[in-house]
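We emphasize that the prediction below concerns an isolated chain of 291 residues; any contacts that depend on oligomerization or on bound cofactors are therefore not represented. The input was used exactly as deposited, without trimming of termini.
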Amino acid sequence: MIGDMMQVLSAKKSGIFAGAGLFVLLLAAGGCSSLRLAPQTLPERQEASFLAMGTKWTIAMSGVPSRREFTVLKDKILSFALYYDMTFSGWTEESELRRLERAGLDKTQSPSELFFEGLRLSQEAFGETGGVFDITVGAIQWRALPAAVGLSSLDIDLERKTFRFRKDPKRLTFDGIAKGMALGEMAAYLIEQGVKGFVIDAGGGNLVERTSSGELRFVSRSRVFKAGSDGDRHVWNPADARYVQEKSEIVCTVEDTTRSRLIYWGALSDAFSTARLLSRDFQLPPICEEI
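Result of the prediction step, given as a C-alpha cell string:
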C-alpha cells in the first residue's frame, strides 16, 4: 500500500514539473513574439501647414512618437498663431488692435497681457534701434497721418499694465514684430513638450529652428515686394515716410530657452531685420549676425 502511494506521489510530481516546464516554454515563446512586434521606428520628420496671420505657415518636427501626438502639437501651434492674429492684426476689424485704435490711443487703456507685452517689446526695439523700428508708421501705411508720431510719445505703466500715447498715432502696425513673438512662444511650447528638433516657418519671412544638437536660431528676413506701386509698400521709414528697395536677413542664435527669453528674441530678431533694412547705421547685438 505504501508502495502504491509513492507511485501516485511520483506521478503527481512529474506532472507538476511537466506543467511548469510547459508554462516556461510558453512564456518564453510569448516573450520572444512580443519582442519581435514591440520595436517601432519613430517618425524621423513629420510636416504640416496652415494659414494664419496673412501667410502660410509650415511646421516640421522630428522624433514625435505618433501622428496623433504630432497633430495635437500642430493644433496648439495653430492656436497660438490665431491668438496673435486676433490680438495684433491691422486688417481685421475684430482684432484687439483695431478696438484699441477706435477707442483712441491717446486715452489710458488696459489691454490684454499679450498686447501689453507687444507694446513693451516694440518700445524696447524702438530704443535699441535708435528709433528706426517704429510701430507708429502704421499711420503712414494706412494713410491716417502724413508722418509717424513715434514711440517716444508712448507712456507705459508697468505696474498697472496700462498705456497711453501723448499724441494719438491713429494706427499702429505690428507686422515687424508679432510673427517673431509668436515664433518665440511656439518654440518655447515645443521645448516644454520635449520635442528635440523642429522648424517653424512663418511664410518665409520669419523662421525658428531647433537642431538635433539643441541649438536654437531665429532667422528673420525683411524685404520689399512689388515696390512698383504705393499699394504694394509694406516697409516704411518712420523718419521721412520713404521705403527702401533692399532686403535684410539676420540670424540670432539663442542659448537661454526660457519662454520669456524666446519671445523676447523672436520679437527683437524680427524688429532688427526691419531696422537693418532701413538703416545700415544700426548695429546688431553679439548673438545676431547678418546672413
